[in-house]
Write a sequence for this structure.
Protein backbone atom coordinates (compact mmCIF):
# COMPACT_ATOMS: atom_id res chain seq x y z
CA UNK A 1 0.00 0.00 0.00
CA UNK A 2 2.76 2.35 1.01
CA UNK A 3 4.58 1.51 -2.22
CA UNK A 4 1.54 2.64 -4.24
CA UNK A 5 0.78 5.86 -2.37
CA UNK A 6 4.29 7.27 -2.65
CA UNK A 7 4.43 7.30 -6.48
CA UNK A 8 0.88 8.67 -6.65
CA UNK A 9 1.78 11.51 -4.32
CA UNK A 10 4.93 12.23 -6.31
CA UNK A 11 2.94 12.30 -9.55
CA UNK A 12 0.27 14.53 -8.06
CA UNK A 13 2.67 17.12 -6.72
CA UNK A 14 5.38 16.89 -9.36
CA UNK A 15 4.09 19.72 -11.62
CA UNK A 16 4.11 22.10 -8.69
CA UNK A 17 7.39 20.87 -7.26
CA UNK A 18 9.29 21.15 -10.55
CA UNK A 19 7.39 24.01 -12.10
CA UNK A 20 7.74 27.71 -11.72
CA UNK A 21 4.50 29.41 -10.91
CA UNK A 22 3.64 32.64 -12.66
CA UNK A 23 2.23 35.55 -10.72
CA UNK A 24 0.00 38.08 -12.42
CA UNK A 25 2.10 41.23 -12.53
CA UNK A 26 -0.28 43.32 -14.62
CA UNK A 27 -3.68 42.72 -16.15
CA UNK A 28 -5.84 44.80 -18.46
CA UNK A 29 -9.24 43.59 -19.63
CA UNK A 30 -10.52 40.02 -19.64
CA UNK A 31 -8.19 37.10 -18.97
CA UNK A 32 -9.22 33.50 -18.32
CA UNK A 33 -7.09 30.71 -16.85
CA UNK A 34 -8.24 27.13 -17.37
CA UNK A 35 -6.89 24.26 -15.26
CA UNK A 36 -8.15 20.82 -16.28
CA UNK A 37 -10.75 22.61 -18.44
CA UNK A 38 -12.13 24.50 -15.43
CA UNK A 39 -11.72 28.19 -14.68
CA UNK A 40 -8.94 28.77 -12.18
CA UNK A 41 -7.44 31.69 -10.33
CA UNK A 42 -3.79 32.81 -10.37
CA UNK A 43 -1.02 31.94 -9.86
CA UNK A 44 -0.60 30.20 -13.21
CA UNK A 45 0.99 26.76 -13.08
CA UNK A 46 2.34 24.35 -15.66
CA UNK A 47 -0.40 23.08 -17.96
CA UNK A 48 -2.80 25.98 -17.44
CA UNK A 49 -4.41 27.36 -20.57
CA UNK A 50 -4.27 31.17 -20.56
CA UNK A 51 -6.72 33.02 -22.76
CA UNK A 52 -6.20 36.76 -23.10
CA UNK A 53 -9.27 38.21 -24.78
CA UNK A 54 -9.45 40.91 -27.45
CA UNK A 55 -8.46 44.34 -26.14
CA UNK A 56 -6.81 42.79 -23.06
CA UNK A 57 -3.23 42.32 -21.93
CA UNK A 58 -1.50 40.22 -19.27
CA UNK A 59 1.99 40.33 -17.77
CA UNK A 60 3.09 37.18 -15.93
CA UNK A 61 6.22 36.85 -13.84
CA UNK A 62 8.15 33.87 -12.58
CA UNK A 63 11.64 34.03 -11.02
CA UNK A 64 13.31 33.65 -14.43
CA UNK A 65 10.71 34.78 -16.93
CA UNK A 66 8.51 37.75 -17.65
CA UNK A 67 5.82 37.19 -20.27
CA UNK A 68 3.79 40.00 -21.79
CA UNK A 69 0.84 38.26 -23.41
CA UNK A 70 -0.88 40.45 -25.97
CA UNK A 71 -4.59 40.44 -26.69
CA UNK A 72 -6.37 37.59 -28.49
CA UNK A 73 -3.72 35.08 -27.41
CA UNK A 74 -4.05 31.49 -26.24
CA UNK A 75 -1.00 30.02 -24.55
CA UNK A 76 -0.06 27.14 -22.24
CA UNK A 77 3.19 27.12 -20.22
CA UNK A 78 4.55 23.66 -19.56
CA UNK A 79 7.41 22.88 -17.25
CA UNK A 80 9.67 19.83 -17.24
CA UNK A 81 13.21 19.00 -16.23
CA UNK A 82 14.56 20.44 -19.47
CA UNK A 83 12.98 23.85 -18.94
CA UNK A 84 9.86 25.73 -19.97
CA UNK A 85 7.82 25.12 -23.10
CA UNK A 86 5.27 27.70 -24.01
CA UNK A 87 2.67 26.17 -26.30
CA UNK A 88 1.23 28.95 -28.40
CA UNK A 89 -2.00 28.41 -30.29
CA UNK A 90 -2.37 31.97 -31.53
CA UNK A 91 -1.58 35.55 -30.64
CA UNK A 92 1.55 37.38 -29.57
CA UNK A 93 3.98 37.25 -26.68
CA UNK A 94 6.93 39.37 -25.59
CA UNK A 95 9.20 37.20 -23.46
CA UNK A 96 12.01 38.26 -21.19
CA UNK A 97 13.95 35.17 -20.18
CA UNK A 98 17.07 34.70 -18.08
CA UNK A 99 19.36 31.69 -17.78
CA UNK A 100 17.06 28.74 -18.09
CA UNK A 101 16.10 26.71 -21.14
CA UNK A 102 12.98 28.28 -22.57
CA UNK A 103 11.15 27.42 -25.78
CA UNK A 104 8.01 28.57 -27.55
CA UNK A 105 6.28 25.91 -29.59
CA UNK A 106 3.76 26.71 -32.28
CA UNK A 107 2.22 24.50 -34.91
CA UNK A 108 5.25 23.64 -37.03
CA UNK A 109 7.95 25.75 -35.34
CA UNK A 110 10.01 26.01 -32.19
CA UNK A 111 11.65 29.18 -30.90
CA UNK A 112 14.52 28.26 -28.57
CA UNK A 113 15.88 30.97 -26.34
CA UNK A 114 19.27 31.60 -24.79
CA UNK A 115 18.87 34.33 -22.18
CA UNK A 116 17.06 36.96 -24.16
CA UNK A 117 14.16 39.27 -24.81
CA UNK A 118 12.11 38.49 -27.88
CA UNK A 119 8.70 38.72 -29.51
CA UNK A 120 6.63 36.04 -31.27
CA UNK A 121 3.39 36.48 -33.21
CA UNK A 122 1.39 33.45 -34.37
CA UNK A 123 -1.53 33.87 -36.77
CA UNK A 124 -1.52 30.26 -37.93
CA UNK A 125 1.02 27.77 -39.28
CA UNK A 126 1.73 29.91 -42.35
CA UNK A 127 1.89 33.32 -40.72
CA UNK A 128 4.36 33.49 -37.85
CA UNK A 129 6.94 36.16 -37.23
CA UNK A 130 9.34 36.99 -34.47
CA UNK A 131 12.11 39.40 -33.59
CA UNK A 132 14.82 39.61 -30.95
CA UNK A 133 15.68 42.56 -28.76
CA UNK A 134 18.47 40.97 -26.69
CA UNK A 135 20.40 37.73 -27.01
CA UNK A 136 19.79 35.05 -29.62
CA UNK A 137 16.76 32.93 -30.52
CA UNK A 138 17.05 29.70 -32.46
CA UNK A 139 14.09 29.19 -34.79
CA UNK A 140 13.43 25.65 -35.91
CA UNK A 141 10.93 24.39 -38.46
CA UNK A 142 10.58 20.97 -40.07
CA UNK A 143 13.46 21.52 -42.47
CA UNK A 144 15.39 24.57 -41.29
CA UNK A 145 17.22 25.93 -38.30
CA UNK A 146 18.08 29.64 -38.04
CA UNK A 147 19.73 31.71 -35.30
CA UNK A 148 18.16 35.16 -35.02
CA UNK A 149 20.42 37.76 -33.39
CA UNK A 150 19.39 40.91 -31.53
CA UNK A 151 17.80 43.66 -33.64
CA UNK A 152 16.59 41.25 -36.32
CA UNK A 153 13.43 39.35 -37.14
CA UNK A 154 12.20 36.48 -39.33
CA UNK A 155 9.02 35.24 -40.97
CA UNK A 156 8.20 31.59 -40.46
CA UNK A 157 5.79 29.30 -42.26
CA UNK A 158 5.35 25.56 -42.69
CA UNK A 159 8.16 25.24 -45.20
CA UNK A 160 10.55 28.13 -44.67
CA UNK A 161 12.21 30.62 -42.37
CA UNK A 162 13.27 33.91 -43.91
CA UNK A 163 16.78 35.32 -43.56
CA UNK A 164 17.04 37.41 -40.36
CA UNK A 165 16.69 41.09 -41.17
CA UNK A 166 16.15 44.38 -39.36
CA UNK A 167 12.55 44.70 -40.59
CA UNK A 168 10.78 48.00 -40.13
CA UNK A 169 8.09 46.39 -37.97
CA UNK A 170 10.66 45.28 -35.39
CA UNK A 171 10.86 48.94 -34.33
CA UNK A 172 7.15 48.90 -33.56
CA UNK A 173 7.46 46.31 -30.80
CA UNK A 174 6.99 47.67 -27.30
CA UNK A 175 9.54 45.91 -25.09
CA UNK A 176 8.31 47.46 -21.83
CA UNK A 177 7.13 44.91 -19.31
CA UNK A 178 6.08 47.17 -16.46
CA UNK A 179 3.01 49.41 -16.68
CA UNK A 180 4.85 51.92 -14.45
CA UNK A 181 7.17 52.59 -17.40
CA UNK A 182 4.23 53.58 -19.58
CA UNK A 183 1.86 52.03 -22.11
CA UNK A 184 2.54 48.33 -22.74
CA UNK A 185 0.76 48.05 -26.10
CA UNK A 186 2.73 47.85 -29.33
CA UNK A 187 3.16 50.80 -31.61
CA UNK A 188 2.21 48.68 -34.60
CA UNK A 189 -1.11 47.08 -35.30
CA UNK A 190 -0.77 43.33 -34.83
CA UNK A 191 -4.27 42.59 -36.00
CA UNK A 192 -4.46 43.94 -39.51
CA UNK A 193 -8.01 44.15 -40.72
CA UNK A 194 -8.25 43.39 -44.44
CA UNK A 195 -11.39 45.53 -44.56
CA UNK A 196 -9.02 48.49 -44.14
CA UNK A 197 -7.15 47.60 -47.32
CA UNK A 198 -8.40 49.58 -50.31
CA UNK A 199 -7.52 48.75 -53.88
CA UNK A 200 -10.36 49.94 -56.12
CA UNK B 1 -7.71 32.76 -116.41
CA UNK B 2 -11.20 33.79 -117.54
CA UNK B 3 -12.67 31.78 -114.69
CA UNK B 4 -10.47 33.55 -112.14
CA UNK B 5 -11.44 36.95 -113.57
CA UNK B 6 -15.13 36.11 -113.35
CA UNK B 7 -14.78 35.03 -109.71
CA UNK B 8 -13.01 38.31 -108.93
CA UNK B 9 -15.65 40.37 -110.70
CA UNK B 10 -18.47 38.64 -108.86
CA UNK B 11 -16.76 38.93 -105.48
CA UNK B 12 -16.34 42.72 -105.59
CA UNK B 13 -20.02 43.63 -105.45
CA UNK B 14 -20.59 40.94 -102.84
CA UNK B 15 -17.89 42.43 -100.60
CA UNK B 16 -19.19 45.97 -101.14
CA UNK B 17 -22.66 44.99 -100.03
CA UNK B 18 -21.60 43.78 -96.55
CA UNK B 19 -23.63 45.81 -94.11
CA UNK B 20 -23.12 43.92 -90.87
CA UNK B 21 -19.96 43.85 -88.72
CA UNK B 22 -17.96 40.64 -88.33
CA UNK B 23 -17.36 38.66 -85.18
CA UNK B 24 -13.87 39.23 -83.81
CA UNK B 25 -11.55 37.27 -81.51
CA UNK B 26 -8.12 38.10 -80.18
CA UNK B 27 -5.86 39.42 -77.47
CA UNK B 28 -5.82 42.78 -75.74
CA UNK B 29 -3.34 44.36 -73.36
CA UNK B 30 -3.20 47.37 -71.13
CA UNK B 31 -2.35 49.16 -67.93
CA UNK B 32 -4.64 50.17 -65.06
CA UNK B 33 -3.23 52.77 -62.68
CA UNK B 34 -4.97 53.81 -59.47
CA UNK B 35 -4.10 56.38 -56.83
CA UNK B 36 -6.01 56.16 -53.55
CA UNK B 37 -5.91 58.61 -50.69
CA UNK B 38 -7.74 57.85 -47.48
CA UNK B 39 -8.87 60.84 -45.44
CA UNK B 40 -11.18 60.16 -42.52
CA UNK B 41 -14.23 58.49 -44.08
CA UNK B 42 -13.31 59.56 -47.61
CA UNK B 43 -11.29 57.47 -50.03
CA UNK B 44 -10.28 59.62 -52.98
CA UNK B 45 -9.66 57.73 -56.21
CA UNK B 46 -8.01 58.67 -59.47
CA UNK B 47 -7.91 55.91 -62.04
CA UNK B 48 -6.56 55.66 -65.54
CA UNK B 49 -6.99 52.72 -67.92
CA UNK B 50 -5.18 52.32 -71.21
CA UNK B 51 -5.87 49.34 -73.47
CA UNK B 52 -5.00 48.15 -76.94
CA UNK B 53 -8.16 46.39 -77.99
CA UNK B 54 -9.01 44.10 -80.87
CA UNK B 55 -9.96 45.83 -84.14
CA UNK B 56 -7.29 48.50 -83.55
CA UNK B 57 -9.12 50.44 -80.86
CA UNK B 58 -7.00 52.40 -78.38
CA UNK B 59 -9.09 52.73 -75.24
CA UNK B 60 -8.18 55.42 -72.69
CA UNK B 61 -10.07 56.22 -69.52
CA UNK B 62 -9.79 58.70 -66.67
CA UNK B 63 -11.99 58.43 -63.59
CA UNK B 64 -11.85 60.88 -60.67
CA UNK B 65 -13.92 61.05 -57.50
CA UNK B 66 -14.30 59.74 -54.01
CA UNK B 67 -15.87 57.01 -51.93
CA UNK B 68 -17.47 57.73 -48.59
CA UNK B 69 -17.45 54.97 -45.98
CA UNK B 70 -20.90 54.81 -44.46
CA UNK B 71 -19.86 51.82 -42.38
CA UNK B 72 -16.73 49.73 -42.20
CA UNK B 73 -18.11 47.38 -44.82
CA UNK B 74 -20.25 49.64 -46.97
CA UNK B 75 -19.12 52.61 -48.99
CA UNK B 76 -20.69 54.77 -51.67
CA UNK B 77 -18.92 56.84 -54.24
CA UNK B 78 -19.38 59.51 -56.87
CA UNK B 79 -17.07 59.85 -59.86
CA UNK B 80 -16.75 61.55 -63.20
CA UNK B 81 -15.33 59.60 -66.08
CA UNK B 82 -13.92 60.44 -69.49
CA UNK B 83 -13.33 57.68 -72.06
CA UNK B 84 -11.79 57.49 -75.50
CA UNK B 85 -12.25 54.58 -77.87
CA UNK B 86 -15.60 53.49 -76.48
CA UNK B 87 -17.61 51.65 -79.14
CA UNK B 88 -21.39 51.80 -79.28
CA UNK B 89 -23.80 50.00 -81.61
CA UNK B 90 -24.36 53.28 -83.45
CA UNK B 91 -20.67 53.49 -84.37
CA UNK B 92 -21.31 50.93 -87.13
CA UNK B 93 -21.87 53.42 -89.94
CA UNK B 94 -21.81 53.94 -93.64
CA UNK B 95 -18.73 56.02 -94.25
CA UNK B 96 -18.47 57.04 -97.92
CA UNK B 97 -19.80 53.89 -99.58
CA UNK B 98 -18.65 51.36 -97.00
CA UNK B 99 -20.28 50.19 -93.80
CA UNK B 100 -17.61 50.18 -91.13
CA UNK B 101 -16.85 50.98 -87.52
CA UNK B 102 -16.30 54.65 -86.94
CA UNK B 103 -12.86 55.41 -85.51
CA UNK B 104 -13.54 56.44 -81.92
CA UNK B 105 -9.93 56.58 -80.74
CA UNK B 106 -10.05 60.36 -80.43
CA UNK B 107 -13.68 60.77 -79.35
CA UNK B 108 -14.51 61.55 -75.74
CA UNK B 109 -17.47 60.01 -73.92
CA UNK B 110 -18.20 61.64 -70.58
CA UNK B 111 -20.15 59.96 -67.80
CA UNK B 112 -21.15 60.33 -64.18
CA UNK B 113 -20.64 57.25 -62.03
CA UNK B 114 -22.38 56.31 -58.79
CA UNK B 115 -20.91 53.45 -56.81
CA UNK B 116 -22.13 51.28 -53.93
CA UNK B 117 -19.66 48.71 -52.63
CA UNK B 118 -20.19 46.20 -49.87
CA UNK B 119 -17.46 43.84 -48.71
CA UNK B 120 -17.03 41.54 -45.75
CA UNK B 121 -14.67 38.92 -44.41
CA UNK B 122 -15.25 35.22 -44.98
CA UNK B 123 -12.11 34.53 -42.96
CA UNK B 124 -9.42 36.91 -41.66
CA UNK B 125 -7.70 36.64 -45.04
CA UNK B 126 -10.57 36.19 -47.45
CA UNK B 127 -12.97 38.93 -48.52
CA UNK B 128 -16.04 38.84 -50.69
CA UNK B 129 -17.21 41.98 -52.39
CA UNK B 130 -20.16 43.23 -54.36
CA UNK B 131 -19.63 46.38 -56.38
CA UNK B 132 -22.56 48.06 -58.07
CA UNK B 133 -22.02 51.00 -60.37
CA UNK B 134 -24.41 53.11 -62.38
CA UNK B 135 -22.93 54.98 -65.36
CA UNK B 136 -24.82 57.84 -66.96
CA UNK B 137 -23.43 58.78 -70.38
CA UNK B 138 -24.39 62.42 -70.88
CA UNK B 139 -24.07 62.77 -74.64
CA UNK B 140 -26.16 59.64 -75.28
CA UNK B 141 -28.59 59.91 -72.40
CA UNK B 142 -27.70 56.28 -71.71
CA UNK B 143 -27.81 54.61 -68.33
CA UNK B 144 -25.73 51.51 -67.70
CA UNK B 145 -25.56 49.25 -64.67
CA UNK B 146 -22.41 47.32 -63.84
CA UNK B 147 -22.37 44.55 -61.27
CA UNK B 148 -19.08 43.14 -60.02
CA UNK B 149 -19.06 40.35 -57.44
CA UNK B 150 -15.61 39.15 -56.41
CA UNK B 151 -13.39 37.28 -54.00
CA UNK B 152 -10.03 38.48 -52.69
CA UNK B 153 -7.47 36.49 -50.71
CA UNK B 154 -4.69 38.20 -48.77
CA UNK B 155 -1.33 36.57 -48.09
CA UNK B 156 -0.09 38.22 -44.90
CA UNK B 157 3.48 38.88 -43.88
CA UNK B 158 4.49 40.69 -40.74
CA UNK B 159 0.82 41.17 -39.97
CA UNK B 160 0.21 43.07 -43.22
CA UNK B 161 -0.98 42.00 -46.67
CA UNK B 162 1.93 41.10 -48.94
CA UNK B 163 -0.03 39.55 -51.79
CA UNK B 164 -3.62 39.86 -52.90
CA UNK B 165 -5.12 37.25 -55.22
CA UNK B 166 -8.49 38.13 -56.65
CA UNK B 167 -11.15 36.92 -59.01
CA UNK B 168 -14.08 39.02 -60.19
CA UNK B 169 -16.94 38.88 -62.63
CA UNK B 170 -18.19 42.16 -64.08
CA UNK B 171 -21.37 42.41 -66.12
CA UNK B 172 -22.49 45.48 -68.14
CA UNK B 173 -26.25 45.84 -68.26
CA UNK B 174 -27.90 48.57 -70.33
CA UNK B 175 -30.81 50.19 -68.50
CA UNK B 176 -32.18 52.83 -70.87
CA UNK B 177 -30.84 51.66 -74.20
CA UNK B 178 -30.19 48.56 -76.24
CA UNK B 179 -32.28 45.47 -76.69
CA UNK B 180 -30.57 42.82 -74.56
CA UNK B 181 -29.90 42.55 -70.86
CA UNK B 182 -26.15 41.87 -71.06
CA UNK B 183 -23.91 43.79 -73.44
CA UNK B 184 -20.54 42.86 -72.05
CA UNK B 185 -18.85 40.91 -69.29
CA UNK B 186 -15.34 40.46 -67.91
CA UNK B 187 -14.01 37.57 -65.89
CA UNK B 188 -10.88 38.66 -64.05
CA UNK B 189 -8.18 36.79 -62.20
CA UNK B 190 -5.18 38.66 -60.90
CA UNK B 191 -2.76 39.39 -58.16
CA UNK B 192 -1.29 42.46 -56.46
CA UNK B 193 2.09 42.41 -54.77
CA UNK B 194 2.82 45.02 -52.11
CA UNK B 195 6.18 46.32 -53.27
CA UNK B 196 6.49 49.06 -50.64
CA UNK B 197 4.20 50.47 -47.98
CA UNK B 198 2.45 52.62 -50.61
CA UNK B 199 3.06 50.89 -53.88
CA UNK B 200 1.57 47.64 -55.22
CA UNK B 201 1.47 46.08 -58.67
CA UNK B 202 0.53 42.84 -60.34
CA UNK B 203 -0.71 41.15 -63.47
CA UNK B 204 -4.34 40.56 -64.34
CA UNK B 205 -5.78 38.24 -66.97
CA UNK B 206 -9.37 38.64 -68.12
CA UNK B 207 -11.72 36.86 -70.40
CA UNK B 208 -13.93 39.44 -72.07
CA UNK B 209 -17.00 38.95 -74.17
CA UNK B 210 -19.24 41.63 -75.70
CA UNK B 211 -21.95 42.00 -78.26
CA UNK B 212 -23.01 44.71 -80.70
CA UNK B 213 -26.53 44.81 -82.03
CA UNK B 214 -28.37 46.37 -84.93
CA UNK B 215 -29.83 49.69 -83.85
CA UNK B 216 -33.13 51.15 -84.96
CA UNK B 217 -31.79 53.48 -87.69
CA UNK B 218 -29.60 50.76 -89.15
CA UNK B 219 -32.52 48.37 -89.49
CA UNK B 220 -34.65 51.15 -90.97
CA UNK B 221 -32.03 52.10 -93.57
CA UNK B 222 -30.82 48.66 -94.56
CA UNK B 223 -33.65 46.33 -93.70
CA UNK B 224 -31.02 44.07 -92.09
CA UNK B 225 -30.13 43.11 -88.58
CA UNK B 226 -26.97 41.92 -86.79
CA UNK B 227 -25.66 40.61 -83.50
CA UNK B 228 -21.89 40.73 -83.57
CA UNK B 229 -19.78 38.93 -81.05
CA UNK B 230 -16.35 40.05 -79.77
CA UNK B 231 -14.34 37.71 -77.61
CA UNK B 232 -10.92 38.58 -76.25
CA UNK B 233 -8.35 37.68 -73.65
CA UNK B 234 -6.99 40.70 -71.87
CA UNK B 235 -3.56 40.70 -70.24
CA UNK B 236 -2.74 43.74 -68.20
CA UNK B 237 -0.83 45.24 -65.35
CA UNK B 238 -2.49 46.78 -62.29
CA UNK B 239 -0.55 49.49 -60.51
CA UNK B 240 -1.78 50.89 -57.21
CA UNK B 241 -0.43 53.79 -55.19
CA UNK B 242 -2.02 54.50 -51.81
CA UNK B 243 -1.07 57.21 -49.36
Amino acid sequence: MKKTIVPILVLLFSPIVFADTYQVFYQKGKVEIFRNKKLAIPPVISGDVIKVHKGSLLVLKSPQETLKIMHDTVITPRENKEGTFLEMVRGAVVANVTKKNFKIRTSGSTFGVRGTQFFVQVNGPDDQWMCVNEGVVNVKSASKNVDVPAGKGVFVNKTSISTPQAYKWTKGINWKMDAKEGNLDHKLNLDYDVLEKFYD
Amino acid sequence: MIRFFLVFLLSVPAFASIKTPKNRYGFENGLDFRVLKKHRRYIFLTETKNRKEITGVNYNQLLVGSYYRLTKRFRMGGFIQAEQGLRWDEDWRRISTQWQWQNTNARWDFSTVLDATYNDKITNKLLWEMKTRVYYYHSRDALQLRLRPGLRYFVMRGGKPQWQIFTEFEGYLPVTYGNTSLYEYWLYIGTLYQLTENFALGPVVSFRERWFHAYHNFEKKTGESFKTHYQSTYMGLNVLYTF
The longest helix of chain B spans residues 2-16. The first strand of chain B starts at residue 24 and ends at 39. Helices of chain B lie at 2-16, 216-222.
